[in-house]
Amino acid sequence: MTNKRHRVVMGGPDEAGDQWLSCAIEQGLKSSIHCVSDGAKWIANQTDRIFADQGTFLVDFYHLCEYLAEAASECVGNDEKTCKKWVEQQKTRMKTNNGASVLSELEPYRNGKPGKEANKSEECHRYIRNRPGQFDYSGAESSNLPIGSGEIESSNRSVVQTRLKLPGAWWKPENAFSMLSLRTLRANGGWDSYWQAAV
């Protein structure tokens, strides 16, 4: 899709979800909604709340690969070539919806500890097992849908960060919201009509 819509939110998850719905309505989308993110549970929950059966949620493939790469040395040792081969094998399994084999591969190396005490294999195993149904990469690719959130993150950098994260800059929340509202207005193509109406 080339016609992007942007929104700004300074509130909580429900406000963000409501903004997604607003974007979808403006786009005139009447079919299914495909959501991709880093696996944050609140985003998956908002996908369910707002789009229900009309929406699907997919964990960003790059984020998953980071977990796999960090677990590799615990599973196969520190040889770089061996680690890379192991990661590629797990990536192929995940892309063909064979997450069960990846979990089995990680199982012997988990330390079973919670939070910061967990080793990398435990973290990776937990990341996958706690997100059932969110790794349908095969289905997404067969429908010509993205499996990564790179386009979203790129927009975040170009619309938000280039203005709000200038060196030495700091913002009051209300001023940041106003600036982001103007930035998203321009990114959505409404800049000229807004100022014409304001005159």
Q: What secondary-structure arrangement, pairings included, does this model have?
A:
Layout: H1 13-27, E1 33-37, H2 41-51, E2 55-59, H3 61-76, H4 80-95, H5 99-106, H6 120-129, H7 137-142, H8 150-164, H9 173-187, H10 191-198
Parallel strand pairs: 1-2
Helix pairs in contact: 1-2, 3-4, 3-6, 5-6, 8-9
SSE order, as H and E?
HEHEHHHHHHHH
Largest sheet: 2 strands, parallel
Strand order, sheet with most strands: 1-2
Low-pLDDT ranges: none
Beta-strand residue fraction: 5-15%
Could you report the average pLDDT, rounded to the nearest whole number? Answer: 91
Structural class: mainly alpha
Instruction: Determine the number of helices (DSSP H or I, runs of at least 4 residues).
Output: 10
Shape: elongated
Distance between the termini: 33 Å
Helix fraction bin: 55-70%
Q: Which value, in Å, is the CA radius of gyration?
A: 20 Å
Total strands = 2
Note down, in words, how this protein is organized:
The chain is 60% helix and 5% strand. The chain has 199 residues and is mostly helical. Among the domains are: 8-59, no CATH class; 61-142, no CATH class. Strands 1-2 form a two-stranded parallel ribbon. Helix 2 links the parallel strand 1 (33-37) and strand 2. Helix 1 (13-27) packs across helix 2. The longest helix has 16 residues, at 61-76. It is elongated, with a radius of gyration of 20 Å. The relative contact order is 0.12.
